[in-house]
Design a protein that fits this description.
Elements lengths: L19 H15 L6 H12 L6 H11 L2 H6 L2 H4 L7 H20 L10 H12 L6 E7 L5 E9 L9 H10 L4 E7 L9 H14 L5 E9 L2 E4 L7
Parallel strand pairs: 3-4
Antiparallel strand pairs: 1-2, 1-3, 4-5
């Protein structure tokens, strides 16, 4: 019997597997054998998209996302509304990408939980970068520490535009007293990518120090993160 279009069907014939099935298996095996160092950014994104879009070749989509946002981390850091601008990304896939971002942030946060932060400075920097470096809007975050310099809580105190977030020094110190913090690490991001501090960044930090010091709250540092790295106001001897 001939199927429409002249193709011969035999009893029990099955559809051939899509061409990308073997590619998925090979890429997954390479990742399992070599870890994340064995795959590129777009290939790691493919691995994430496999679960969200099981019946389509997602390599072109992964490459489109990397081209639009710049890197794997920047794709995960993009706001859902921007992800939905990309053809082939629906609400469920955008949500899956944000879940992966949240998982990475939780993993980085776990490395600093219940440990003296000043002796785990590399982990602090990695957490701050995971949490904020690739966001497309400026955010101001505070790590509230107890007398042993262990993390009590960390909070985003404000979110603004691509180059500004309003910060109110008295509100920062008031919140520190509310949670019983004796020290703070201030953190914000520069969506431009350049983590160099501005004059306004330094002035705002000094204002917070002036208000906090008489109340027994120390400001250990103000860290600025961006795609190009990070800077420390204390390391730069600006505070």
């Amino acid at each position: 019997m001939k199927a429409p279009g002249g193709r011969k069907d035999s009893p029990g014939a099955t559809e051939p597997e899509p061409h990308h099935t073997g590619h998925r298996d090979r890429l997954r095996d390479r990742f399992l054998e070599g870890g994340d160092q064995a795959v590129s950014d777009y290939e790691l994104l493919e691995l994430v998209l496999f679960r969200s879009i099981p019946r389509r070749d997602v390599k072109p989509l992964a490459k489109t996302l990397i081209a639009k946002f710049g890197s794997f981390a920047e794709v995960l850091g993009a706001r859902p509304a921007r992800l939905l601008e990309v053809q082939g990304i629906g609400e469920a896939t955008a949500a899956d990408l944000k879940i992966v971002e949240a998982a990475g942030r939780r993993l980085a946060r776990g490395a600093i939980a219940k440990r003296p932060l000043l002796s785990s400075w590399k982990d602090v920097i990695e957490y701050c970068r995971a949490a904020m470096a690739f966001a497309d809007r400026e955010e101001f975050r505070i790590l509230f520490l107890d007398k042993r310099n262990c993390l009590i809580i960390d909070e985003v105190q404000g979110s603004g535009t691509v180059d500004h977030t309003p910060v109110y020094p008295r509100e920062v110190v008031r919140r520190a007293l509310e949670v019983g913090a004796t020290a703070l690490i201030l953190v914000h991001n520069h969506p431009s990518g350049d983590p160099s501090p501005s004059t306004a960044d330094v002035k705002m930090t000094l204002d917070i120090i002036d208000i906090a010091k008489p109340l027994g709250v120390a400001i250990h540092d103000h860290i600025i993160v961006g795609r190009q790295g990070h800077s420390s106001l204390r390391g730069l001897k600006l505070i």
